[in-house]
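$ run holo --ligand "magnesium ion" --emit tokens
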Amino acid sequence: MNKIPSDMDIAWCPGCGNYSILETFDKAIEQTGIDRKKLALVSGIGQAAKFPHYTKANVFNGLHGRALPAATGLKIANHELSVVITSGDGDMYGEGGNHFLHAIRRNIGVKVFVHDNQVYGLTKGQASPTSDLGFVTKVQTHGVVSVPVNPLAVAIVEDASFVARSFAGDKEHLLAMMVAALENQGGFTLLDILQPCISFNRTNTLKWYKDRVKKIDESHDPYNREAAIAMSLKWGDEIPIGIIYRSRRESFEAKTSMLAKGTLVSQYKGAAV
Amino acid sequence: MNKIPSDMDIAWCPGCGNYSILETFDKAIEQTGIDRKKLALVSGIGQAAKFPHYTKANVFNGLHGRALPAATGLKIANHELSVVITSGDGDMYGEGGNHFLHAIRRNIGVKVFVHDNQVYGLTKGQASPTSDLGFVTKVQTHGVVSVPVNPLAVAIVEDASFVARSFAGDKEHLLAMMVAALENQGGFTLLDILQPCISFNRTNTLKWYKDRVKKIDESHDPYNREAAIAMSLKWGDEIPIGIIYRSRRESFEAKTSMLAKGTLVSQYKGAAV
Amino acid sequence: MDMNVRIAGEAGQGVQTTGELLVGALAKMGFHVLSTQVYMSRIRGGLNSYDIRFGDAELHSARRKADILVALNEEALDTLAADVEAGGAVFFDGKAEKPYVGIGFTRAAKETGGSAVMANTVAAGAVFARLGYDVEALVQYLAVEFKKKGSDVVEKNAACARRGGQLAVEAGVAAVNAPKSVGAPGRVYSGTEAVGLSAALSGVKFVASYPMTPSTGVFTFLAGAADKYGIVVEQAEDEIAAINMVCGATYGGVVAMTTTSGGGFALMCEGLSLAGMHELPAFVFLSQRPGPATGLPTRTGQEDLQFAIRAGHGEFVRAVYAPGTIEECYELTRLGVETAHKYQTPVILLADQYLVDLRKNIPPLDETYKAIDRHIKEDAGEDYMRYAVTESGVSPRAVPGGSAFVVLDSDEHTADGHITENLDVRVEMVDKRLRKGRGLIEDVVPPARYGAEGAGHLIISWGSTYGPCREAVDILRTRGVEVEMLHFSQVWPINTEAVKKAVGKRSRVTVVEGNATGQFAGLLREAGAIGECEKILKYNGLAFAGEEIAEEVSK
Amino acid sequence: MDMNVRIAGEAGQGVQTTGELLVGALAKMGFHVLSTQVYMSRIRGGLNSYDIRFGDAELHSARRKADILVALNEEALDTLAADVEAGGAVFFDGKAEKPYVGIGFTRAAKETGGSAVMANTVAAGAVFARLGYDVEALVQYLAVEFKKKGSDVVEKNAACARRGGQLAVEAGVAAVNAPKSVGAPGRVYSGTEAVGLSAALSGVKFVASYPMTPSTGVFTFLAGAADKYGIVVEQAEDEIAAINMVCGATYGGVVAMTTTSGGGFALMCEGLSLAGMHELPAFVFLSQRPGPATGLPTRTGQEDLQFAIRAGHGEFVRAVYAPGTIEECYELTRLGVETAHKYQTPVILLADQYLVDLRKNIPPLDETYKAIDRHIKEDAGEDYMRYAVTESGVSPRAVPGGSAFVVLDSDEHTADGHITENLDVRVEMVDKRLRKGRGLIEDVVPPARYGAEGAGHLIISWGSTYGPCREAVDILRTRGVEVEMLHFSQVWPINTEAVKKAVGKRSRVTVVEGNATGQFAGLLREAGAIGECEKILKYNGLAFAGEEIAEEVSK
Ligand SMILES: Cc1ncc(C[n+]2csc(CCOP(=O)(O)OP(=O)(O)O)c2C)c(N)n1
Ligand SMILES: Cc1ncc(C[n+]2csc(CCOP(=O)(O)OP(=O)(O)O)c2C)c(N)n1
Ligand code: SF4
Ligand code: SF4
Ligand SMILES: [Mg+2]
Ligand SMILES: [Mg+2]
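-- output --
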């Protein structure tokens, strides 16, 4: 049941960080006991966005950058589904930036897993919104001049329900984060996963990340917004991983009176209005 | 020269906050000595976006939400122009949200004046991204449930060059802010202007704002990011106005080697490559 | 016989309120009423006008001139007095020189009712005097209308209405020979209401839109109806979000729609293509206004036809409906939603500012809630294939959350929905998707005919030009000119054979459209359905009047 | 005579490198070379192939079968061995059973050159042995090609090439009768390079794009050429930003463009409409791939023709060019940019994956930099009117920063660019904008003819189907079937009279297109330029081969 369709050939490069994310995801689903028939994976386009094809679930593999609105529509139609987005840094923070900004405000209860390799993988190595300054590509021939977007900080100032970072190179940590994210009931849930791309990011390699990631100290209170913002602004020699922020807001679904009597889609079953 | 075309009939409601913004803008241009022939006003669509028609300047009145990319293209074509955007909260933070997020990263040297009336004026009163929680409209019949976007906080965490807030009801303050914004040479410049909409926002009225705005204390150091973030998160009983944040980043134009020898458009004049 | 009353003034002066008051009262009194609106893109100021045409027979179009003009400000007087029929009356809110009748509506309202907002009631009273109708009929209507607001409001309005009539008489206004009541149906609907109501009754449960004139009315209508019908109405951050939310919601099994106009629709093209590939029943209400770009935001036009038909990259099938009447707004909304679900493909309902703002009294629409058949297969089971290849091209539809895994991919995919680069499967899937076009063609709403059957001259209308064309046919007939008319309320796909048959042999074919390039004529030609033809085109932002078309035809 | 060498293997195995090496060497040796690529949407793995067809006469299309297959992995062998001509050779990187020739390219490369990346040089050496060409010609080419990398690299590659030849001989490979060099022009270009180079030479100084296959090549080319030509290349956050940046930059007076494919273009529709309303010379390079939605991201198709022509709400004029050859890529890019500026309106250059990846040796393109005429009026002065009404519809163009105020509005506007709701001005402005269409029609690139003049059977091609159709005409001629061919390198607007004249009376008209619905045939019909016609359509993601069209025609 949790195996990929046997004739499905995984299109990722051997050695790609996406494999550990896939493996860990399957573990997290097992651990949380989520019924795969009630699991919907929504994605855009990119390497990360191919993910849903490689596990067993309902799948909506839509347009580049548009996973969030599709997932929002789906979650509203049937909020009993676990709706998980698997996206890339370009997909979510580039093409999809506006939806990112507004889905957080809405606090829609979807889980957003961003495979953040700081590069456009599928289109062969252009800079992404999270590429570091100076990153050289065939388009950014003199190196990136725009400062990287800080999705975690943006999510925190917009008061997202759950904001965390993990690393594909630390499966144990990743599993813990995925489980926490999947179990979060508060609304918009962001898990940014540092993911080495061996083909196009020769700067932020597995080793580069390994040398820098640092688990967030237990003393950090994710409900403390100020501390969370400060934590989210850290990047460079030390990159904090763990749950950075949590908010006590109510989710969109919880606040929408129309959904109190059951899922929207179930409302066709009963009597006419 | 700085008069509006005599046959131009201003389409704003009598009593609208936009009038003081217009009046103050003309003063700011006078005070800064900006040559109107070198001034380009770029706007999207909305009440605020009609602004460029009511003063004398070069005008690019484009699409709803798309002032920023158009202004970016223009600034790159001719960085000797003063490029000023007059936009609304819906235009800039709603439809235009993705450009907002990325123009800041780019630190393109355009001035963004947002006439923030916390409502969609031109389309008759739907909630905007800055509408307060609970704001009731014909679309948001049970009141707004999404938390307002915090454009200032977002701009600060994205390290914009200049971030300030002012109020249409305090022309003196507004003039000072406009002048400071126009004179800022560092790159992306955001001035969010609280603007009463007498027709569709009966909550955040002139009085409502007057009772709450509070000039930022001189002791505030806009180069202190932490303090700036804390300041930007304030909203409600007390709404700080003034320069909240400044950064020492270099602008896109300054960092682009191609523009070192003069404006891009001037490069047709010289010898062929 | 019929008459045309025109209320004109600045935005914010109550043009619309006065108009609606008269429409309501006259409809209640049993006249046939049809009203249209022309307004500027501003909240206050400018010049707006509201035409109330009413009479003793059904009406289908506006008239160019007014029999009575109520000018609420000087600009209205200056600009519109020339468009009053000879012998017509002009009321002006203030002092006016002869032949204009100066009545201080606002002043009278303040004096009589205590508030300037009742000026429209005073004006309505004056209009009644001119028409020679008993002002008490107006008073009765007001009593019902304002009942909820309490007896004080009712009484003050009654006084204002009476005062208006009195002032008109005092000013020397004589009653004219006005239409007699015929007991016409008493329920007034706008195009907006007919679309919104039908959507709600058809089981639309999710609406995601970004406001844009002239589509916002339907969005707002559905927001207002949300509690009653159990609809989640969400204002999206932009139109791209709106269409993708709709895709997500339909995937989830809910009937969903979005409302937009040209610029917003332009942003939805990629999402439309997604619905084509995913085979999702996305329903788009596209209300046109003149372009390009921002154009004339509050005016009318039919410029987005060919765009609507070609919008989206790659090839996929769709249906595009274009209602011409309030009734068609109601029927085609349901049919559109049904077709989207029957064929699992995007459907567009193409309206325009003229049509959404058109108001008319018609027999009450059926308000029974009856959700359309979503064609959902329950218990699809583990072996479910979302894109099973079928003869009709339509695959059994399951939705997530049940016993099946439902897999959609925007890349080319195998029958189970997973990504593929197998090029034979590609061809099979393209053929499958396009095969749905056959059923869509069979289901096309046949063009409706009107006028002199088989006449040598055929007039073709589509969408909102129906009414004006129909009136033109009647006008021409009174002048002894026999023409036949063919009306298309579905503009895509084109059933070439059916059209060819309906057109038959004619000496003259004229296509009437609200655009500058003759887009529908082009489509009919491409389909091989017609050959050379004449075109009557209008693109100044206003709708046709029947008389205007009759004139053009007679040229 | 000509031969076809096919290199196939996984992404990342050097299929492209090997292909380009052979193309380069064979072109240098004076053969006519034409290469095409087929690849999957992945970075590693899968199955890609690269065809190098070369001979003693100019080539216009790929062939379906190969004379030599170099299979870099087992999947390539299993899938493609069947597509080798009888008597052809199959090389396999490893052990292989007869009749396949197993040569350990990688192993040989490691042993001889010290690194696996030189396996492609070994393979090229083996191919040379099969062709009976002196491997020293390959070595010479390598010496020039790798000069910059130092003598060590050159020597190691030389050794690998020789080793490849030797291994082939040892494996019993016999030389075949191969084409003789004819001193063909030595400069190889891809479609991508021809477009990119032409854009740079025409004075494009600003490029804003969002990456999307198969348009990214031109974007990357221009980024690589930026320092040389003084171009600012900016990766936009999305395609909406890209087109609006282009609008802003052209307003500023700079020649600007964007590159995209179907899905990205869909997002640009509103911006395109803006360029139409603002009258800005926005230039869009639209490289097609199969849809709808994500479709087949790395394959080819011609499915976006009608969308490109109708994209954007409201009505405005545009030109759409569709090059069929490398030379046309070069010429039409400049012409497209020129037309955009001459008429101040958006222009689209429509290519596809097949064409951008096509490589061919042709006489060197003129690399003189000569910016196009931007038609800018200097010193326009205080009284300047951006939208002065003229006979041609084209208003004198000034840019901001000079003596004039330059005012653009996306709403309907008066001649000075300010917003208006004057409906007479509206009509005047629509007419003015659409009047530009007349000049555009006069300037249309006439269709090119080829083959038997006046033959009863006419084949129509557009864009990249040119080459395959042309080859089909030649093939048919050798079989005694005379057909004429008409090639459209501009697909919009349609000059109906010119097409009618060129088509004349034919007993049979066949339109050849890379889509499933016959879009260009539809356009020609709508224009009234042709009547009933046959269609040869292909939509599996691959380009036509000449033989295939010849076969279809003969059916
Ligand atoms: C509208 C649109 N624009 C562009 C593309 C091309 N495209 C596909 S994936 C991608 C970027 C992928 O980067 P990211 O989201 O970081 O994913 P990754 O491949 O790195 O996992 C782009 C630009 C597209 N499919 N659609
Ligand atoms: C693509 C598109 N979508 C929607 C609209 C309709 N529209 C025009 S202005 C506006 C919102 C205006 O709100 P805001 O930007 O806050 O400006 P305000 O009128 O309040 O000054 C909208 C939704 C449009 N013109 N284009
Ligand atoms: S290109 Fe990078 S992200 Fe994509 S599959 Fe390969 S290693 Fe992974
Ligand atoms: S609607 Fe509001 S924002 Fe617009 S002009 Fe009127 S008062 Fe000003
Ligand atoms: Mg990435
Ligand atoms: Mg606003």
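-- notes --
Residues 13 and 178 of chain B are 23 Å apart (CA to CA).
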